[in-house]
Amino acid sequence: MKQQVIGCASHSYEIADGWGKLPANLTYGYTHGVCVDSQDNVYVHNTGKDAVIVFDRAGRFLTSWGQEFEGGAHGFYLHKDQDGKEYLFCTDTKRGLLAKMTLDGKLIWEKGQPDRPNLYGGERRYVPTDVCVAPNGDIYVADGYGQYYVHHYNSEGGYIRSWGGRGSEPGQLLEPHGISVNLRGHEPELYVADRRNHRIQVFTMNGQHKRFMEHNLDLPCSFYFFGDEVYIPDLDSRVTILDKDDRLITHLGEDQQAYKQKGWPNLPKAYFRPDKFSSPHGVCVDSRGDMYVVEWISEGRLTKLIRQVE
Questions:
Q1: Whole-prediction pTM
Q2: Do residues 299 and 27 make contact, with C-beta atoms less than 8 angstroms apart?
Q3: Of 8, 120, 20, which Cα lies nearest the Cα of 60?
Q4: Class of the domain covering 5-307
Q5: Best CA proximity match to 298, nearest among 285, 279, 274, 283
Q6: How many angstroms separate the CA atoms of 204 and 152, rounded?
Q7: 289 to each of 11, 13, 200, 231, 280, how far by Cα in Å?
Q8: What digits encode the pLDDT tens for the residues 144-196?
Q9: What is the distance between the alpha carbons of residues 141 and 159, in angstroms, rounded to a whole number?
């Protein structure tokens, strides 16, 4: 069978068709996040009964856990702490909380709604959609479906500050869906996927607005930094790769018809094609440059793309 390859001259990928098959007793919900650990094991965060499903690099099922996140699994971030151990940070939109977990699902701590009565209460809900961790251990949570703030905590979950709020002016946000730390420059920066403003907004680590990125984006969901590049799942049917200066390298699997279909994102299975995306929501890259993409689809969708060596 002929290999299916997508991408451009510098970034081409073979589609690993059928990679990561689920056991018969498991099904996905919406696949919202994906992470890879130092052993290249792949963790898929989804809204199904087992919210975290783990595969090895070859796509063999290893384990599953996370029943407490059923229906709410959303933001997903893997971080190596100063103790040298890797941990998963998970946001739950249903319960309105952030959890720090071991790689095998043991709860370290969890954090609920910030103690900010001027921001939350009554109809003003807290709905965290993503999380990231700075090199010093500070934690940043994006309230992407609630009041559109970013909340800053120390490594133990102690509250420091908040910023944002609904709007389109510098520093304001309209669905801050994803958040991550950019370490490619002279100092760390926060990248926020300001999704309904169709842009990325860049902040200092203390929440000061620095600049907008508004080119080659439609509905950016989140980020994955790999080397000098950043990988962005765009809900409107493509994955975008930018270089160290945030200039476009390529759009992968772009399908400009998918998100215009009636019933999207839950389209008939016959619509989906291995070389096209419909609703990319999360992405990560392993140590060899292979990419894993999950999509916002009720029955879940996971794709592995194998990086082709030039």
A1: 0.96
A2: yes
A3: 20
A4: mainly beta
A5: 279
A6: 12
A7: 10, 10, 24, 11, 18
A8: 999 999 999 999 899 999 999 999 999 999 999 999 999 999 999 999 999 99
A9: 11
Using CA atoms, how far apart are residues 109 and 99, in angstroms rounded to an integer?
6
Distance in angstroms (rounded) separating the CA atoms of residues 101 and 225: 22
**Strand duo 199-203 + 189-194: pairing:** antiparallel
Per DSSP, the three-state class of 119 is coil
Domain boundaries, the chain: 5-307
In tens, the pLDDT along 250-277 reads: 999 999 999 999 999 999 999 999 999 9
Question: Could you please report the per-residue DSSP string of 198-259?
Answer: TEEEEE-TTS-EEEEE-SS-SSB---EEETTEEEEEETTTEEEEE-TTS-EEEEES--TTGG
Q: Which of 27, 302, 75, 259 is nearest to 179 (CA)?
A: 75
CA distance 252 to 249: 10
**Could you tell me the two tokens for 198?**
């169709």
